[in-house]
């Protein structure tokens, strides 16, 4: 079952049924001076003016001591209001990077899609014990 939050960048699923995976933080929406949405089931795809796509998605990690335990580090979307209570600036953060989106002067195409958890082999040259491998 999907539990969708409709935003200016797309629909974000905050459901916590992850088919055997554990979400590292509780998915949901926090309201205040800004909106914070945590999701383990949605990825954000940003297409720039040059046509290149940047994908920000939750990160799947596996415990090296307990390989049956698979955890998803959530994607965090943080929206900042302007005076008219409209989303003005949006920050989309994965475990490893944050992208700032200015929705007023936007020249990018932003869309959301369902995230399917897949364990990816890291191509790190130097280990920093992040848990991706």
Structure commentary:
The chain is mainly beta. It has one domain (4-114). The chain has strands at residues 4-7, 10-13, 22-23, 28-30, 34-39, 42-47, 53-56, 59-62, 70-73, 75-81, 87-93, 98-102, 109-114. The strands form 4 sheets. Strands 4-5-10-11-12 form a 5-stranded antiparallel beta sheet, with no helix packed on it. It has a 3-stranded mixed beta sheet with strand order 3-9-8, with no helix packed on it. It has a 3-stranded antiparallel beta sheet with strand order 7-6-13, with no helix packed on it. Strand 11 (87-93) and strand 12 form a beta hairpin. The mean pLDDT is 83.
What is the gyration radius calculated from CA atoms? Answer: 16 Å
Instruction: Give the CA-CA distance, first to last residue.
Output: 30 Å
Strand order, main sheet: write it out. 4-5-10-11-12
Strand-residue fraction? over 45%
What percent of residues adopt helix (DSSP H or I)?
A: under 10%
Q: Tell me the overall shape.
A: globular
Largest sheet: 5 strands, antiparallel
**Number of DSSP-assigned strands:** 13
Mean pLDDT: 83
Task: Please provide the ordered H/E string of secondary-structure elements.
Answer: EEEEEEEEEEEEE
How many helical elements? Answer: 0
Number of domains: 1
Report the structural category.
mainly beta
Contiguous low-pLDDT stretches (5 residues minimum) are none
